[in-house]
Amino acid sequence: MVLESLLNPFALKRRPWEMFFAGFFNSLVAVLLSNVVFKEGASLLLVFLIVLSLLPMLYVTIKNEEELDLDLSYQGEWSLLKEHSKVLLFLLFLFFGTTLGLTACYVFLPEATVQTTFALQEQAIISVNSNLQASLTGGITRLDFLNRIFMNNIKVLFFCLVFSLLYGTGALFILTWNSSVIAAAFGSIVRNNVSEAINLTGATTLSVYFSSVTHGFFRYMTHGILEIAAYFVAGLAGGIISVALIKHNFQEDRVLIDVLDMVLISLGILFVAAVVEVFITPALFA
């Protein structure tokens, strides 16, 4: 009960940047413990430990957001959505902190430890890259590719919504898993660039690490930040309706209207993310 007690859900809306450090620290602790406790299954155990440390905080947050739907001092849906956006902000900080912490572990841990700690994440990256390559060499049009990307992302969004509905904070597992996969992708880019710098010059500098991390961040996050935001919005919507079902709070249909609006917003964000991924990211990082 130590890690989760460090976070105050009611203060995080005012200081969302604190979640960055919480995510970074929790990821380091999770990697350490997963290698000590169950090294062979570290790639999944680290995700579980990160989620476990954040569950109490996120549950209290979702419960509070559900109560806002019934607070008559918030007049109109727009005021509620503005309040929910504060939660989205600190969740994004959490995602960045977790991703950077796991990336640091991938870059600086010994190669053998990295292979066991991120084994399943690397398999996921290989699978995604092979499917992407097959799509690009299959002669499909950009619009067909856009449709495939969008429909695949809708599946992830659907699972975020369902997991949150069934488990309250279930989407946190999916989003933490995505964070670990992105961290492995970032880390792979950094390690490859550092290795090339050492082969060319016999040494490496801080600028190599900085440029590699920056390149990897913008390569994946140009569209990725929109996708993650959409998943968080859907996860929050599912969590709110989950709490409402338990408490039987459906007065004046405010909860259902709020959840429906959030789902529609998440779909809109996800479509924009797909457009950016298909048309903008390849142009910037061809």
Layout of helices and strands:
Blueprint (H helix, E strand, L loop, with lengths): L1 H4 L3 H4 L5 H20 L4 H28 L7 H32 L2 H7 L1 H18 L5 H26 L3 H31 L4 H42 L6 H31 L2
Helix pairs in contact: 3-4, 3-5, 4-5, 4-9, 4-10, 5-9, 5-10, 7-9, 8-9, 8-10, 8-11, 9-10, 10-11
Walkthrough of the structure:
With 286 residues, the protein is mainly alpha-helical. It has one domain. It has 11 helices and no strands. The protein has helices at residues 2-5, 9-12, 18-37, 42-69, 77-108, 111-117, 119-136, 142-167, 171-201, 206-247, 254-284. Helix 3 (18-37) runs antiparallel to helix 4 (42-69).
Features:
0% strand, single chain, 286 residues
What's the gist of this structure?
The chain is mainly alpha-helical and 286 residues long. It is built from 11 helices and no strands.
Per the principal axes of the C-alpha atoms, what is the gross shape?
A: globular
Measure the end-to-end span: 47 Å
Arithmetic mean of pLDDT: 80
- Determine the strand fraction and express it as a percent band: under 5%
Flag low-confidence runs: none
